Each structure stands twice: as structure tokens, then as C-alpha cells.
Amino acid sequence: MKRIVTSLEDDKAEAIVTIDLEGRSSLCDAAVIASGRSSRHVMSIAEHLARRLKEQGYGTRPVTGAAQGDWVLVDAGDIIVHVFRPEVRDYYDLEGMWNVPSPGRA
Hints:
- By secondary structure, the chain is α+β, with helices and mostly antiparallel strands.
- The protein has helices spanning 2-10, 39-58, 86-92, 94-97; strands spanning 14-20, 30-35, 63-64, 71-75, 79-84.
- A five-stranded mixed β-sheet has the order 1-2-5-4-3.
- A hairpin with a 3-residue loop joins strand 4 and strand 5 (79-84).
């Protein structure tokens, strides 16, 4: 998880949230949600993360949604990483789905 968050921070991702899903989801043990400032920024964050994970020995990681850049998902095995444009993140409200406060909201 630390490597993922560090990669996101290095690429200036905003409002990074980690959600422990162990025992709550059959898909993954954790989710990381972050925002990029634009479609290009979102795509860049996700592509860099996938490349860094591969370089660190985690193999090729599937990246979904990079063509549009509104919501990109990186499958990091036990951790799913979601990178959104802010308005798309607000619309889907994954934090709300998992009852986790999102940054900027009380």
C-alpha cells in the first residue's frame, strides 16, 4: 500500500484516501482513491503507477479506462486503485459507498 500511495503522491495526485476492505469485499483487501486535475493528469498518474509496480516486480498490472481519463482503475492485485477527475469522483462517491468520509466533506 505504501508504494502505491508514494507513487500517487510523487505524481501530485490529490485527496488520496485508503479504504480497508478486508472481509468486506471479495474483489480486494483495500482500495485507494485519488483525484487528478485533468483527464491527462489522471491518465498519467495511472500509467506511472502501473509502470512503477511492474518495475518493482509486481508484473504487468491491468489499467482500465485510460482512453477516456475520467476514471482509471489500476488492478494492483489485493489493492484496487481508482484515479478520478474530481467531478467524476463526486458523482460516483465510492467513499460514500464504503462509509468513509471523503476529503473536504465532514
